[in-house]
Amino acid sequence: MDVSELLDDLNQKQREAVGAPAGNMLVLAGAGSGKTRVLVHRIAWLMHVENIAPFSILAVTFTNKAAREMRGRIEALMGRPLNSMWIGTFHGLAHRLLRSHAQEAKLPDNFQILDSDDQYRLVKRIIKSLNMDEKQWPPKQLQWYINGQKDEGLRPHQIETHGDHTQQKMRDIYQAYQAACDRSGLVDFAEILLRAHELLVNNPDLLANYQRRFRAILVDEFQDTNNIQYAWLRLLCSQDNHIMIVGDDDQSIYGWRGANVENIQHFLHDYNNVSTIRLEQNYRSTATILKAANAVIDHNQGRLGKELWTDGSKGDPISVYAGFNELDEARFIVSQIQDWQQQGNPLQECAILYRNNAQSRVLEEALLQQAIPYRIYGGLRFFERQEIKDALSYLRLIYFPHDDAAFERVVNTPSRGLGDKTLGIVRNHAREYDLSMWQAASQCVEQGLLKGRAANAVTAFRSLITELSDQAEHQVLDEQAKTAIHGSGLYAMYQAEKGEKAQARIENLEELVSACKQFEIPVEEEEELTPLAAFLAHASLEAGETQADSHQDCVQMMTIHTAKGLEFPLVVLAGVEEGMFPSQLTHDEPGRMEEERRLCYVGMTRAMKKLFITYAESRRLYGQDKYHTASRFIKEIPDDCVEEVRLKSTLSRPVHNRFSPATSHEAFEGSGFTLGQRVRHRKFGDGVVLNYEGSGEHARVQVNFDDFGAKWLVLSFAKLEPV
Ligand code: ATP
Ligand code: MG
């Protein structure tokens, strides 16, 4: 390979970084300026020009996907496989170290990783074994605490409790938990990093060995490293090797998980002779998208400061669409994606990005309705999520108590003290007499096969389901769901937990109530099925539908966090309204608003050619209608970058100002109804007209019924009457 090949398709600044003499380097630059590309070329340069063996290179990325891509790109540049090069995430690399030196790390050879769910269960058992009350010491909170301490590099004996009783108790739990892990050779995620750090600290020879080995260390997305990761890197660097970090303070979006953007400043302070290179040319986005993103991030204080420019074309304006509600928003997004496809472009090039996982459901349904394949990255599809499956299991038992799968899933969720032994007895009995678990459970109690606490717990569970079914008889579908979620204790269980994940689970549960409220029983099933039965069928069909596989051309869906580092020709940022994005929680914590804005910057800068920003003026959120205004982030975009879109099909959509809610009372052509008018339906009762589309016999109206939620109805069949 000719050296010039490594520099040819780089600009002057990028070449400087790639071809710099060996030394410590910081590449600080905004989104899409080629940081990752520089890192890749630098690695190839080090091998080709500086003759550093692949074996002596350590490269750190943020996700496994990014690591795979990076290896692929370097191998392509070098034209050969480079198996001996270490490329991975902090966790992946630290894990590798522990495997190679398990003994020195005081771990058994066959140590196992404890994932987050297993960790939760273990913490729970520890709390119980210490005779402490779970209500006072919620396991999730303790799990969060333990991981937080580890991320700061702290063992129990290093924690200052200042005589505070609560702090002491938490420390005791941490200690007992750690002892249990050590006894059974278990290592949780935070432990992987901490243990690898300790391994190097406690074994100077080993450390010296790795310091000699890794002549070059390179880190992408450095702005999101946490303290223990920083300390780990710091150890590996010595006089003889050098480190290059690339990052963007404006894209630091994991502060809530302990990432510390100040590590960039620490780096400048802690390392000798750091040369800093700034890249300022953006190659990813159109001038319009770039200008808009720059304007938004400019509202943050205390930035390290950098402006991006591009010599690319101005491109299309950013299209902002104000959906009447979230269904309208989703329909708009789908129609734009269809247009894109009809112009001969692959679906693969479209990404829908959102703030929270729960937002995916409405979008998923709109895509399914039009048979557009999609793939969700870094998360499960709505009906496959753990908490949703739990809640659906309760609904299934209410509908049909002999559903063994549902019974097994939730009989001890939330915990009712039913152990495997008790369930084993019930299972055996069911098998022997060919009964459902539901029947067997009752017989086991009657016949004295179960006694004492076990018998009580089983009986209590049966009464709970019976009680929920009794209540359900008088309830509409969404009330049934609400009762199941609350009455079962699922809601309280997640509420007692702490952290983003528990919060997301609660949001999903509330979203399930919304799904029930919006659910429209298919006309052909109306006679035979109760709404609950029809909904359960709908949910399992949708979950069963296989997700588009990675080779199929499909729309990419993910949270903005997951999209970090990626790029797509067409990007839709959905749900960009106050209260959603920035999220409601933002107001309570200092610094959170700026992190939200950085997240918005990350989202916008994923777009190469076309960016849509959409929001819903009213959104059924967690079972309630909420009215929102456009996000402040939309208002921060200069006017000349934005075009407001209106759909032709929603002919009578009132023309209104971009940032104010619709307020029209014009009648739709010939229909006799106006938006916002109150109407009555023979079955659904009273409601308000929300939306309208089509004309003549195809005309449909959307009515938000007081008792049944929003529904689309064919106007000529609906026989609506004005109230
Ligand atoms: P992010 O901050 O989002 O991680 P980044 O700074 O890492 O972005 P890259 O992903 O490396 O940016 O590059 C963005 C896009 O610009 C890529 O498609 C890349 O191939 C392209 N690119 C980078 N440098 C050049 C260049 N000199 N000439 C042409 N294209 C370039
Ligand atoms: Mg990058």
TrEMBL record:
Domain UvrD-like helicase ATP-binding intervals: 8-286
Keywords of this entry: ATP-binding, DNA damage, DNA repair, DNA-binding, Helicase, Hydrolase, Isomerase, Nucleotide-binding
Binding positions for ATP per the UniProt entry: A29, G30, A31, G32, S33, G34, K35, T36
Domain UvrD-like helicase C-terminal: start-end pairs: 287-565
Keyword Hydrolase attached: yes
GO molecular function, one term: ATP binding
Catalytic activity reported: ATP + H2O = ADP + phosphate + H(+); Couples ATP hydrolysis with the unwinding of duplex DNA by translocating in the 3'-5' direction
GO terms under biological process: DNA replication; recombinational repair
One Pfam family hit: UvrD_C
Alphabetized Gene3D superfamilies for the sequence: 1.10.10.160, P-loop containing nucleotide triphosphate hydrolases, PCRA, domain 4
Cellular component GO terms held in the UniProt record: cytosol; DNA helicase complex
EC numbers for this chain: 5.6.2.4
Coiled coil: none
InterPro entries linked: DExx_box_DNA_helicase_dom_sf (IPR013986), DNA_helicase_ATP-dep_UvrD (IPR005753), DNA_helicase_UvrD-like_C (IPR014017), DNA_helicase_UvrD/REP (IPR000212), P-loop_NTPase (IPR027417), UvrD-like_ATP-bd (IPR014016)
Annotated PROSITE patterns: UVRD_HELICASE_ATP_BIND (PS51198), UVRD_HELICASE_CTER (PS51217)
PANTHER family, per database record: ATP-DEPENDENT DNA HELICASE SRS2, UVRD / RECB / PCRA DNA HELICASE FAMILY MEMBER
Family under the similarity heading: Belongs to the helicase family. UvrD subfamily.
Protein name listed in UniProt: DNA 3'-5' helicase
Organism in which the protein naturally occurs: Alteromonas sediminis
